[in-house]
Structures are given as structure tokens and as C-alpha cells.
Amino acid sequence: MSERRGPFAAAVAAARARGELVVQPRMGFGDPAAMRAGLTAVARARATTVGTITLDSYTRVGDQAAAARALADGSPLNGYPIVAHPVEVTRWVLGAAQEQGVPVQVRHGSARPEEIFAALLRTGVDATEGGPVSYCLPYSRVPLRDAVDSWAHCCEAYTRLRDVGVEPHLESFGGCLLGQLCPPSLLVAVSVLEGMFFRQHGLRSVSLSYAQQTCPEQDEEALAALRRLIDELLPELDSHVVLYTYMGVYPRTTEGALGLLGAAARLAVRGGAARLIVKTPAEAHRIPTIEENVAALEHAARVAATERRAVTSAPDTGIYAEARTLIEAVLELSDDIGTALRRAFERGHLDIPYCLHPDNAGRARGYITAQGRLAWARPGRMPVRVEHPVGGRPAEMTSDGLLAALSYVATRYDEATPPTLGPAEPVLELTPGRRHNRTSR
Amino acid sequence: MTAPAPARPSPDRPSPVRPETAGGGRTVLLGTVSSDAHTWNLVYLQLLLEEAGHRVINLGACVPEELFVAECHRHNPDLVVVSSVNGHGCTDGKRLAAVLRADPALTAVPIVIGGKLGVDGRLTEAQVAELFAAGYTAVFDDGADRDRFLEYLCRLELPVAGRAP
Q1: So where are chain B's domains?
Q2: Where is this region: Disordered (chain A) (predicted)?
């Protein structure tokens, strides 16, 4: 299998063989010197790391003119514009980490990533992420049909890295979707389906994702379900599981943020993930600095080193069965995974809660139970189980209820720790004038 | 145009405003800037505005300027709300306001912007001034709260003359 791994997948596999969790930041700067310095710092961190180049939002949406304009007039960018920068510049940026043997993944978020994949091929970057569903419905207004076609072409184009002897690696972002209020079965199902889509279009080395949610026990069960489905449905691929530290509203206090990151590191080890994407205490306030990223990587690595893989499996509440049912319902719609995915969303057999995209049915709703677990409040047309709370059905979501649910994890981790000095910063642009209960209804 | 709302929240915050008392009955066009993929802010604002009795057209993620203009023509909104949290809101928001204000039919409609508008936390006074100069009626920088937004909706003298109630 080793010939089937590029530098990125090989580094993860080697760490896994040594029993070490790979930790990775989300990091992107418009300025090449800052980006190179960031990668160098990540490579030198006291942790088993891989580097990240996160692209800016102009590049993500294909607005290369805006990215070039920002570079020309010095406007700040929220990531690295890999298409706008010349190839030699990007090679120089990558050079420092590569010299230290630390591979780099490009993270973007583009529903139509042709230009980004072309840039990856020009510069020889062997790892990236996304997917036809996970980068379209939650994060764009591109029609799903177009995203499916585009991702199919990009996957096929990416396999041309083999011409220069490098096996490309692609990670599905399907385990995140909108980051919050989506019950685990759908996250697991979309991740696996995108992995199958990647395989259909020529990829042989993939990672499937899952994002930390509201309840560690439920998350551990979800990771076990994901690993089992990979074994059953994608056995011939080189693959690993990647966990994302909580992708929703982040704790505002340093203690709360580190507590949540530590919980993610423990979950990654217990749940058999090979790689963890970290977040920093700056997350609730602004784009983190290089130093903050390094500190978060080292914290996660320290916590992970103290944890052991779970010996007993988490209680089975039905996540595996529900994810498997969702996957089978999609696969029935066509032999072509892209067509099947498109039809599934058209018919509402897949339906991402709270997703505003016109191609999403928008009938399903998730909620947080009194026990802190994610459950379905409304199934839409999906074959999933609705869990009624004691005393009736979940109330319709109000603005206050939504804010409380979105802040559930942040509030829990912030309140578990002493308050920090100074005024707390808001986490959404409009924060409520009063405190909410810790649980949603 | 109405007087601009203060760009910073007042420290002596009045008691919470209930959404249902905050005006109501207006048509609000809601969306984000062309580079911003975030939507939880939009989901939240839609609920908040609907609870206040407004009709909301939610344009979702990554709204091109031309689409904002076209939807303004289609729905003739009483208020346009731009919410952005990806750090490009100041740059993209200025461009959006310029495009909207350049349309002869959209010189008077109130346009407000809020969220995390810069990559470095709070905006500078100069950046806030630039947003007003670009055509915004109010700026709700990071730190603005729900009540101040609802109060703004209450006191906004929305140009409803000539419109069926």
C-alpha cells in the first residue's frame, strides 16, 4: 500500500503506526512570507503535525480579480490566494515545511474548484479537501448539479499527480456540513458517500471526516460507525479518519476554548481518528496568529498523549444503522454516485438541517436534547428516527432557542471554568441581551 | 436617510426589546457579501426579524452584488440587511453599497450592515466612516447586540410612503 501514499497520507500512516495523533491547524495568510513562516512554525511545533494552507474567500468563490486586487492594494485577505500568487511564490512558501519533512494540505471550501486544483497540480501539493456536497450546499449558492460535475472533473484531474509519481490524497468535508445542529448519522453518511464519489472518480487515498458535536459519548459512537462503514464500503482504499475540533460557535474564554480542544483530542484518540484539526482560543474573536496556532497544536498533542484508544465501544444508540440506511437510500437512486447524491437532495432523502441552499429541501431540523445529544426534531423526508423529548415534541426553533442551541457548547465550556478578566467578546454579530439556559428545550 | 445608529454599543443598555414590539410588517431583504459562505447569522436574523413581524427574503450565502440589486427590484424591500462574519465584510460591503446606491431606484432604501466585518476584530473609526460614506444607513460592528438592532428597527423611519400597508 505504501506506493499508494503521497507524502501527506504517508506521514499520517507513519504517525498512526507509532501511536501518535497527527495535529493540524487551519491557517492561511495572504502574505507569502507570513504563510511560509506559519508553515515553518507548524513544522517546528512540539507535536506530530502536518501543515495547512487555508485559502482566502475570494479564491474560494472563484473571484480571482478581487484576490489580485487585494494583493495589489494591500487589502487584508483571510487566507492564502493560491491562484493569484505565481507558482514560484507558492513553491517558496511550501519549501520551508517540505525541507523539514512536514507535508502540507490545502484547505479551501470551493464548490467549483477547477482553478484551485489546477494550482495544486502546478505546485505539486498532494493533499486537499472538500466534496461535491459538503462544499456546495452549506457554503455556496452554486447549483448542486454544477458542483457535482466540477468535483468529478477535479478528482479526475487530481489523479494526474500520479504522472509525477505522487499519489493524491483527498479528504471529505462531509463530517462537518454546517458545523452545528446536524445529528451524527447524516454527517457520517455524507462523509462516506463523498468518499465513494472520490473513489468513483479515481482517488485511491482518502480521509473521511467527522466534526466534534455536543456530546462526547455520542461522538465516540459516531466515529465507531464511520470506521465500520469505511471498512464495509471503502475497504480497498488507503484511508483514515480525521476529526475536526468543534466547528460551531467557540468558547470565548481561554480556559473554555482549551477545555473544548482537549476534549476533541481525547475524542480523536478514543474514537480511532488518525488526525485532528485544532482550533485556538482566538477562534471566537478573530483569525488566530501563528503563535496561537502552534500553542493549540501543542496543547492538543499533550492531551492526546495522555489518552488511550477506547477498549470498550460506546453504547449503540443507532447511529451506524441510521447512517447505513441513509447511504443505501442514496445508492438506490443511481449507479453514479454524483447523480444519486443530486437526486437524493432533490427528493429530500438527504436534507441538511438549517441549510439555506436552494437545492436543499430544508424540511429537516436537528435539536439538542436535555441530555445534550443531537437528535432529529423534524425528519423531512429522510429515513431517520425522530426523538421526542419527555412531555411532547420539540418546539419550533425561535431566534432565542437557536442562539441558545448554537451557543450550547461554548456556554458549557465557558461556564465550567472561572471567568477571564476583561469584557467578553461576542461570538455572533448579534448576541442576546440576557443569558440563556445551558440547554435548549 | 435616517440618522446613523452609533457604531458602538451603548454601555448603559436598556432593558431587552421583545422582537414582537420592534416595528413589524416590513419587507426585509437579507443576505451576505459575495465572498462570505457563513449562514448561521442569516438563519438567526431571519428568525429574529420574522418574530418581529417582518417578512424576510433570505438570499443565503455568497450573494453577488447583481443578485442583491435584482432582488431589490423584485421585492422592493423596506430595509436591506447585510450580515457578514468572514472578515471581508468591510471591503466587500463597501463595494456592495456602491453598487446598490448607484441604482437610481435604490438611493433611499435603508441599508444596514453588521457582523465581524474585518480580519482584525473590531473595525477602526475610519473603516466605520468608510462604510457610512459608501451608503450604509447603520453599521453594527462586532459587539453590537440584538436589542440595539431591534431598537434600530423600531425607530427606523422606513420610507413606506406610497406603499400599501
Answers
A1: 24-155
A2: 416-441
Query: Mean pLDDT over residues B107-112, rounded?
Result: 95
Q: Is A350:A189 a contact under the CB 8 Å cutoff?
A: yes
A368 and A439 Cβ atoms separated by less than 8 Å: yes
Q: Report the side by side order of strands in the sheet with B55-58.
A: B55-58, B27-31, B79-84, B111-115, B138-140
3-state secondary structure of A171: strand
Contacts of B51 in chain A (CB under 8 A): 398-399
Does pLDDT of A242 surpass 60? yes
pLDDT at A6 over 90: yes
This model of the complex carries an ipTM of 0.81
Q: What is the CATH number of domain A2-305?
A: 3.20.20.240
CA closest to B85 among chain A residues: A429
Cell 496556532 found at: A293
Q: What is the CATH number of domain B24-155?
A: 3.40.50.280
Going from N- to C-terminal start, the domains of chain A cover: 2-305
Per CB-CB distance under 8 Å, the chain B contacts of A140 are 37, 61-62
Look at A58-72, A86-100, A408-422 and tell me which has the smallest mean pLDDT.
A408-422
How far from A143 is each of A139, A154, A180, B84, B89, CA to CA, in Å? 11, 16, 23, 22, 24
Q: How far is CA A223 from CA A39, A273, A319, B10, in A?
A: 29, 8, 10, 46
Q: Do A430 and B114 touch (CB under 8 A)?
A: yes
Summarised one tens digit per residue, pLDDT across range A81-104 is 999 999 999 999 999 899 999 999
Output the CA–CA distances (angstroms, integers) from residue B26 to A2, A87, A242, B139, in the order listed: 62, 51, 46, 20
pLDDT tens column, A381-397? 999 989 776 556 566 78
Q: Do B19 and A399 touch (CB under 8 A)?
A: yes
Mean pLDDT within A405-413: 95
Q: Which long-range contacts (C-beta less than 8 Å, at least 24 apart) are formed by B119-127?
A: B119/A76, B119/A77, B119/A78, B119/A286, B119/A287, B119/B87, B119/B88, B120/A76, B120/A286, B121/A285, B121/A286, B121/A425, B123/B7, B123/B90, B125/B7, B127/B90
List own/partner pairs for A231-234 with CB under 8 A and 24 or more apart: A233/A192, A233/A195, A233/A196, A233/A327, A234/A192, A234/A195, A234/A196, A234/A199, A234/A206, A234/A208
Supply A388's cell numbers.
Answer: 421526542
State which residue of chain A sits closest to B139, comparing Cα positions. A429
Report chain B residues whose CB lies below 8 A from the CB of A62. Answer: none
Q: What pTM value is reported for the model?
A: 0.87
Place of cell 482560543: A281
Residue B68 neighbours by CB under 8 Å, 6+ apart = B29, B31, B59, B80, B96, B99, B100
Of A151, A130, A124, A161, the residue nearest A54 (C-alpha): A130
Distance CA A254, CA B107 (A): 45
Q: Is pLDDT at B144 greater than 60 in this prediction?
A: yes
